[in-house]
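Morning run. Coffee first, then this:
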Amino acid sequence: METTYDVKVYKILTYKGARKTTYTVRWVVAGKRWREPFDTVALAEGFRSELIRATGKGEAFVIATGLPVSHRSKSAAMSWYKFAVEYVDARWPQLGGHSRKNIAKTLTATTIALLRAKPTQFAPAAVRTALREGAFNTNRRPDAPRDVVAILRWVERNSLPVSAWEEPGSTRSCAPSTPASMASKRRPGPASATVGSSTSP
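And here it is:
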């Protein structure tokens, strides 16, 4: 896990669209730009404050994730599957039918890539369907049939922790289209870590 103290946190970028306003936290870690959008200014300010506190304490940041090292212990305790299900439930009311389908499809591929072992006891198509139409469908999940429940329980037991994303060469590369906003769920150094107030990048 490669880390750095070369961190800059910028002002929140406010974008007022036709349907809603988005507040984006922007920061740079070892020269790489990171952005995280939020639906409310309070959430954006809260996340930005976390980054600033970490730099203030001289905490190192993980280059691969752009987040403080302290996040690693939190993400190691939660499985990817549980994290993905909670993400879907949180986003469900805000999404239209097309977006729901796209997210379910993307999370299905990512979840399969982040399993400790291949689910050889189940048909591949059955696993994909169980995840896409059961796990990642807030409305259908409570009434999922027994065969789907059995598959999802196996997936939950064999899902890697969220921290797997932080390892170089991890299976994260298998699903590059996973929603970037999911990363925000994740959360003695030299004085080189700085906090900027510039309006860039």
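The mean pLDDT is 82. Good start to the day.
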